[in-house]
Amino acid sequence: xxxxxxxxxxxSERDVSLASGRSVARALLERxxxxxxxxxxxxxxxxxxxxxxxxxxxxxxxxxxxxxLADQRQWRQRMHASLTSGPVLDLLRDAEAVFLALHGGWxxxxxVQALLEMTGVPFTGAGSAACAAAWHKGRAQAVxxxxxxxxxxxxxxRPGAGDVPEDVERLVAAGPVVAKPxxxxxxxxxxxxxxxxxxxxVASEVRSxxxxxxxxxxxxxxxxxxxxxxxxxxxxxxxxxxxPVFDYAAKYQPGAVNEVCPxxxxxxxxxxxxxxxxxxxxxxxxxxxxxxxxxxRCDADGDPMCIEVNALPGLTATSLLPLAATxxxxxxxxxxxxxxxxxxx
Length: 345
What we know:
Layout: E1 2-6, H1 14-30, E2 34-38, E3 46-51, H2 72-84, H3 86-94, E4 97-100, H4 105-108, H5 111-119, H6 128-135, H7 137-146, E5 155-157, H8 166-174, E6 177-181, E7 191-193, H9 196-207, E8 213-217, E9 223-229, E10 232-233, E11 237-240, H10 248-252, E12 258-260, H11 267-283, E13 291-298, E14 304-310, H12 320-327, H13 332-344
Parallel strand pairs: 1-2, 1-4
Antiparallel strand pairs: 2-3, 5-8, 6-7, 6-8, 9-10, 9-11, 9-13, 11-12, 13-14
């Protein structure tokens, strides 16, 4: 198939996306597809292609820290222009499928999906409505809770000149808590907060960026994740942490954490996590053509809580979805082909 891979983009997950895009390109070439690799936010958006089986694609190393967003406005301007006019739009219209290796920001919140829906070109992953529902953690948690899934209490707060909201103060007083952007991915800017003084420090760090935070109780138990591809849940992964939270550096530096697949848990517990992941996938509007990854953390009693649902989880060499695929007996090219098949069947 003639496939355009969209990667890079304008979010804090830009580097992760560039790495995912190159990995996806190698897998599709191995499966006999023609590939064009495009970063719509770049000054020269076509990174490589058209590539054909046998061509070589260089890798991309993800740094320990997310990229600076100083150029985000320019990235967004380029991205909008690329996807709505000119040679990139022509490539998209000529493609038989678009593989979305974008993570975060416009690539995961429904913006890009809505544009592609208007072009009528098949693309991988969930549609714009499901992506938008999953991307805002506060709204997603409300939907999951209304659907009967276990979620924790939470409060939203946009730090500014005013006082800290009462519901945030109450959670911190009962602490510890986790404070994180309500709309971001890859555990960027996730903080454990143990006191009001620490909360003030976090607020001062994010205030200038206009970030809205979600504050929720810190869960001291084990951490798991379950991927769903189409209608199939993959084996449970346990994330064994050496840090209080699974942050950006831990996610993308090999050896930073121990990821066990399949998780060493009783069958009944694994089945419970699998059922919850499938229910979360469907509750947010993901259908049989989409894929997702639901993250869980256990409370002090060992009961799992749904933390978030990822609409376009990472596809790098160290990402969790490829690890789950390996646990299911799939190779990386198998996983990428299955995702493409879901979009084009």
